[in-house]
Amino acid sequence: MKIAVIGAGNVGAMVAGRVVDAGLADVVLIDIAPGLAKGKALDISDSRPITGSLSKIEGSEDLKATQGAGIVVVTAGLARKPGMSRDDLLRKNSEIIKDVSGKIKRYSPSAIVIVVTNPLDAMTYLAMKTTGFEPARVIGMAGVLDSARFMNAVSPDIAVTQDEKVFMMGSHGDTMVAINRSDGLDDKIFKQGAERARNRGAEIVGHLKTGSAYFAPSAAVFYMLKAILKNENRTVCCSAYLQGEYGEKDIYIGVPVVLGSSGVVRIIEIEFTEQEKKAFKKSVSQIHETIAKI
Length: 294
Fold this sequence. Notes:
Blueprint: E1 2-6, H1 10-22, E2 26-30, H2 36-45, H3 48-51, E3 57-60, E4 71-74, H4 90-107, E5 112-115, H5 120-131, E6 138-140, H6 143-154, E7 166-169, E8 177-180, H7 187-208, H8 215-229, E9 234-243, E10 249-260, E11 263-267, H9 274-293
């Protein structure tokens, strides 16, 4: 199978590199910046004799090169800069996603689409509406990353943290909802870890000054790609389209799903506490507000 990665910035290039290094699939890397995708594709390709990978990679500035891709990963868009909220990105990235989604529909009408561009939930919604694809084939990478940040934040204080018991739901932003079903994580550590996870993206941006996170986001995308390509039917958190689940409709938001070869196999509904339900509703409201702007 061919995977198309649209956007050869830090996240896109690292996703492409992880896929090729693992021999998971062939890759076409796309970027409108002259020579960027081609140069990075050559660099990634040169690692194949070292890793023993047989996967092929090419770079291009033309989205027509994505034709026939089974999965398209969209990382194209502006990255957050210090002092910039996710909503600050909305107008410019909406234009990019509309253009890219139209071309995905033209060249890869059967593809599964994974959206990484921020503000993620709204951009995933826009990609689904623009392509007209069934919602199960358009997924936002959010909960995998946010849950990993959460688990990493609490890992010094808990011996074993299972992702099916400790994870993040809701929006990929300030109103994400921390879920704890672990017996070994006390309330104080849980709250501290959740707050650190919510602020991790901004913390990284503050240190980097001129960019945003890409190591963990690319790992999260790779995790999702592996679940799809190997039909693992793995339970993960990601931004998925609700059609009545959790009492919500016509919205993309982070929820637990089963991920397999067809995309979202099913959405898992967990039973909320009253506090979690209130926090989830707040996330829903924030995403609806953002969607209304586009």
